[in-house]
Design a protein that fits this description.
single chain, four-stranded antiparallel β-sheet, 3 helices
């Protein structure tokens, strides 16, 4: 008697974490605002207003850093899935490989390190003409996976042909289509 075995399809998943950033500046701004009240410097309305502004800006900066750190980028066989559990207005987004139209590598300064480079993925949802951009921290392995799976090639005349070598000459934007 012949037995038939059903093998489950193995789904390859690569997960990339968001980029940790120094939260020192955010905490310092918020702490400066809080200390204004404990030191009794808030007797003048303008000083109190500035203290509340510092607290608000420090909290917003801290929240932005937490969003960046907690975001994950999952590469599957079907799509690139961006999950951000602390971004309440958009908890997650799935971008299938056939609808990713372009990827930009943004080098923000000359002699750049990995922290000075950003990644922008531009895609069009199914049945829509709207182009949506997702900004990501630069990770050479993530950029290579996106380019390979979406079938993107370096634009003609682009100074960047490999994700491992960041152009050091000057800042610029490098497109993969």
């Amino acid at each position: 008697m012949a037995e038939t075995l059903q093998a489950d399809a193995v789904v390859e998943r690569l997960i990339f974490k968001g980029q940790p950033k120094s939260m020192g500046a955010a905490l310092a701004v918020m702490l400066a605002g809080i200390l204004t009240f404990s030191m009794g410097l808030n007797r003048v309305f303008f000083v109190e207003a500035m203290a509340w502004t510092f607290i608000a800006w420090g909290a917003l900066l801290l929240y932005g850093h937490i969003i960046d750190y907690s975001t994950t980028y999952e590469v599957t066989d079907d799509a690139l899935i961006v999950r951000s559990p602390t971004r309440f207005w958009s908890l997650g987004r799935s971008m299938d490989w056939g609808h990713i139209k372009r990827m930009n590598v943004i080098v923000e300064r000359a002699e750049a390190e990995t922290e000075d480079v950003g990644l922008q993925v531009i895609y069009t949802p199914d049945g829509s003409t709207q182009m949506i951009r997702e900004d990501m921290p630069y990770d050479p392995a993530l950029a290579q996976e996106i380019a390979t799976r979406a079938g993107l090639k370096a634009a003609k005349g682009s100074g960047m042909t490999s994700f491992q070598a960041i152009p050091q000459d000057s800042k610029g934007s490098y497109t993969w289509q």
